[in-house]
């Protein structure tokens, strides 16, 4: 049985109505003000924060920084009434996992919350079989060793960060040599190739959002150079991000 998870929503009372209909299976939802934020965040609770900055995007960026200072591992979904590319980049630089401009479709927000919670739940239940989801870029074998499963989950949970072989081998509790050999044996590609495939799979979802520029998508996925993102995207998909986006809005 999965342990109950916790979602904290940081918002002013005037914006609380949006979250009254938010329902996530086996997760409690608490609404707090910015003033009560520090008391609501402990060493292992909550599992995710939804930060609604309202019209004060810059103030929200400041609060985001405070949240990450309290717990850097805590995923934060950032929402704001007004937006610009500069604000989006600031939010991602401060550590936001997702970014939405309001009004936001409640089903889209709920899906984002459920996806992050599922990843965190699978990290906690590290001995449970790693199940394949429709969004997985590669079919995972049923006999996947626990060590390799831990590395796969580490990649999926940190797709927006720069990861290195040392990080992944450490997550698998294996030497770098044995990790690379076993990863390719069971997954079929190298760890770094798999990481790129996970990033590009996520990019395909983000590029369908008209509110995010291609440069912003690249930055969010850990590419400091948009041209490198374009090269990797075309290498995996066969087309450029611009061509992919154009096909989504035909």
Detailed description of the structure:
- With 250 residues, the protein is of the alpha/beta class.
- The chain has 2 domains: 5-124, Rossmann fold (3-Layer(aba) Sandwich); 132-250, Arc Repressor Mutant, subunit A (Orthogonal Bundle), CATH 1.10.10.60.
- Helix content is 49%, strand content 10%.
- The chain is built from 11 helices and 5 strands; from the N terminus they run E-E-H-E-H-E-H-E-H-H-H-H-H-H-H-H.
- The protein has helices spanning 37-40, 57-70, 85-94, 106-124, 146-157, 165-172, 176-187, 191-206, 214-220, 226-237, 241-248; strands at 5-10, 27-32, 48-52, 76-80, 98-101.
- The protein has a 5-stranded parallel sheet, with helices on both faces.
- Strand 4 (76-80), helix 3 (85-94) and strand 5 form a beta-alpha-beta unit.
- Helix 8 packs across helix 10 (226-237).
- It is globular and about 55 Å long.
- Mean pLDDT is 83; it is low at 126-135.
- This is AraC family transcriptional regulator.
- The modification 4-aspartylphosphate is found at residue 52.
- Residues 1-117 form the Response regulatory domain.
- It holds the Pfam family HTH_18.
- One of its GO terms (molecular function) is DNA-binding transcription factor activity.
